[in-house]
Every structure is written in C-alpha cells, then in structure tokens.
Task: structure prediction
Amino acid sequence: MNAYQAGQTTQFIFFGLWAVVGTVLAVSSITRMRQRMVYLQHAVAKVLSQVVCASCGFKVIRTFNVGDYVTKEVGQCQQCRGSMKVDLIYAEDLQPKKT
Result:
C-alpha cells in the first residue's frame, strides 16, 4: 500500500500480482495434500497370514495378528489335531486389477 500511496503503481501491481500467485499456490498445495490424505486412507492393503498344518498340509488363510511371524505355532489342526504354523504373511491389494 505504501508503493501505491507514493505513486509507484507499477511496483504496487507487481507485488499485488505476486501476492495473488502465492495465495493461489498455497491453496492449491493444501487441497492436493488433503486429496492425497484421503487417497492414502483408502489405499491401505489387507495383510493376511497363511497357516499350514505340519502333519496333513491343511491350509487356513486368516487376517494378520500382531505378533505373527513365519514358523510361529498357532494351535492345533482342525482335521488331524497336528501342529499349525504360520507359513506365509502377505499383503492383498484392495483395488481390483485392471485387465
């Protein structure tokens, strides 16, 4: 405003233009950041554990539990009462694959 009152209208317009550009860039950055946050909340993968019986080979796929690790014994087999161990831990994409 001091430049305008001093009669330097070109300098006033130049700084005013930079203020508008800066404001537009700031608002654009904030909206893009919010869009990314929403996307990342929906893009979380589902983590699964495959449990296999050491005796008969019976397989069960279940959701990952905190503390699961490969070769962890998790209980008895439903079919032969043998030892069930975690064989595989993997993440499954929630979005369908495009062909």
Remarks:
- The CA atoms of residues 28 and 85 lie 51 Å apart.
